[in-house]
């Protein structure tokens, strides 16, 4: 009897581990699919005579890379859970990266914005759009409440605000948000 009980506990433990890790693997797959989609959009744009880029972009609108880290993260319009499983989501009530104002970008801390915890003021973030590549310099890092208006403060110059859950290692709904603001480099 003890032997079967031990085997049952091992099987349950393995099942719980698989259930905990599977969403991360699924997110990785969706990010890679989005990156492939972005490459297709760029190719289509380069081969097209379309003057209005917006007609080509229905999904991925660009990519983001935190300097010193290898991860390239796709950016999509919207912040639904389905979008955030595919990369970073641009809050549609804010401007697009590179435009004057504050572009608020949300992403899950697991896998998507995990390296954000290691950035420092002065580090660079690169955003690629159909208009070109933009480099932003990190100017502020704060930990705030989820509803803190600081996240949406207006900006007089092109600014991106990256928002993810905090603390980075935490089980369940997180009580705070880790916010990194970066200004377009001159």
UniProtKB/TrEMBL annotation:
CDD domains: Sortase_D_1 (cd05828). Keywords: Hydrolase, Membrane, Transmembrane, Transmembrane helix. Gene3D superfamilies: Sortase (2.40.260.10). The chain crosses the membrane at residues 7-25. PROSITE patterns: PROKAR_LIPOPROTEIN. It comes from the Bacteria. Pfam families: Sortase (PF04203). The keyword Magnesium does not apply. This is Class D sortase. It comes from Turicibacter bilis.
């Amino acid at each position: 009897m003890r032997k079967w009980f031990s085997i049952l506990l091992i099987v349950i433990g393995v099942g719980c581990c698989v259930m905990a890790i599977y969403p991360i693997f699924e997110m990785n797959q969706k990010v890679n699919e989005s990156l492939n989609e972005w490459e297709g959009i760029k190719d289509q744009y380069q081969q097209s005579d379309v003057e209005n880029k917006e007609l080509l972009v229905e999904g991925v609108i660009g990519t983001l890379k935190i300097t010193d880290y290898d991860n390239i993260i796709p950016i999509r319009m919207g912040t639904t859970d389905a979008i955030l499983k595919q990369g970073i989501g641009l809050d549609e009530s804010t401007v697009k990266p590179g435009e004057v104002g504050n572009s608020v970008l949300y992403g899950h801390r697991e896998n998507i914005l995990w390296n954000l915890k290691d950035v420092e003021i002065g580090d660079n973030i690169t955003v690629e759009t159909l208009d070109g590549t933009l480099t932003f310099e990190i100017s502020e890092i704060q930990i705030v409440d989820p509803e803190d208006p600081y996240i949406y403060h207006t900006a007089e110059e092109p600014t991106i605000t990256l928002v993810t859950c905090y603390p980075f290692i935490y089980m369940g709904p997180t009580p705070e948000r880790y916010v990194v603001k970066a200004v377009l480099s001159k």
